[in-house]
Design a protein that fits this description.
The protein has 332 residues and is α/β, with parallel strands linked by helices. It has 7 helices and 19 strands.
Length: 332
């Protein structure tokens, strides 16, 4: 039977690695199951691995690339004693304690890991257009986050794909930087709330391309335009934009926990008010997997810190936590 770990962190984005840093500093020797490089939903490092410049993460006045930031967080977690494994969790059983997790054959009688506490930090992924060029151009003009990347499009013409509240919010935000924002929507009417529609229609910088669908992205190393098809006539044309923001929704990576952890209608994990605790004792959730509102690296890191503290306190209440290496608070 496997050794029982104090803390197992599932996921290695900002939330997962921050929780690893804090629990490692608390002498809990966390195990981080990072994910698999080939996975689209469990990629080590999370969504920041697909981001080039990150200029809004505190502490980096000159900016830092997403992969560099995640490598720094990973190194910091390892420095304090976190164990990191490149693997994907295929099944969990939280019906009894210790909690059980499988990274190999999910039908095996023996779990791969046993855990007193589990921090779920599997993140969420932006829904994309399923175009071959997306992987090549993500972070190079193609983005899923206006708050993250809008600043890089000063004085340019950019496009937003989508017709819901998120798309309108992105378009309105982007008018702070761009000279022109074209909303590309596959229907003739928006799905956004009336108030968001009114704000978008009143903004002189926003134009609408109705009954249209982006079918290809142009450019080899940088986005140079989008090929758009009229879904009524079938005609295609090139939209000359240097930035394109996909705003058709997000999906939390929670399929593994369906029927086990409480979720809202869209699959985001539900935590108790003022806490990162889920409905299962000893299981906590942090980052985008439970945050449908902010979805920023810094807020994910913050909730990772919260989950680590919640897990540590829960272990102490159970009489399972070892003494801390440094009982004096360091984050004044």
């Amino acid at each position: 039977m496997s050794e029982v770990r104090n803390v197992v962190v599932v996921g290695s984005g900002p939330a997962g690695l921050t929780s690893a840093i804090y629990t490692a500093r608390a002498n809990l020797v966390p195990l981080v199951i990072e994910g698999e490089p080939s996975s689209t939903t469990d990629q080590p490092g999370g969504q920041l691995m697909l981001t080039t410049e990150v200029e809004n993460y505190p502490g980096f006045s000159e900016g830092i690339t997403g992969p560099e930031l995640m490598a720094t967080l990973r190194s910091q977690a390892a420095r304090f004693g976190a164990e990191l494994v490149l693997s994907k969790v295929n099944a969990v059983d939280f019906s009894s304690r210790p909690h059980r997790l499988w990274t190999g054959d999910p039908t095996s009688a023996d779990p791969t890991y046993l855990a007193r506490t589990v921090i779920v930090a599997t993140g969420a992924r932006a829904l994309m257009l399923d175009l071959p060029a997306e992987q090549r151009l993500i972070g190079r003009g193609l983005s899923t986050c206006a708050t993250c990347d809008g600043f890089f499009h000063q004085g340019s013409h950019i496009a937003v794909v989508g017709g819901g509240d998120t798309a309108m919010e992105e378009a309105l935000f982007l008018t702070r930087f761009a000279d022109k924002v074209t909303v590309v929507h596959r229907r003739r009417e928006l799905r956004a709330s009336k108030i968001m529609q009114e704000r978008a229609f009143k903004n002189e910088k926003i134009e609408f391309l109705w009954n249209s669908q982006v079918v290809d992205l142009l450019g080899e190393t940088r986005l140079e335009g989008a090929l758009v098809r009229d879904v009524v006539s079938g005609d295609t044309s090139v939209l000359a934009v240097t930035g394109l923001f996909v705003a058709i929704g997000h999906r939390p990576n929670t399929d593994l926990f369906r029927g086990i952890l409480d979720m809202d209608d869209d699959g985001y994990l539900v935590t108790k008010p003022g806490s990162t605790a889920t409905n299962v004792e000893g299981v906590f959730a942090a980052g985008d997997v439970q945050d449908r509102t902010y979805r920023q690296a810094v807020t994910a890191a913050g909730s990772g810190c919260m989950a680590a503290i919640d897990a540590e306190r829960w272990l102490e209440a159970q009489g399972d936590a070892p003494p801390q290496l440094d009982p004096t608070p360091t984050d004044w």
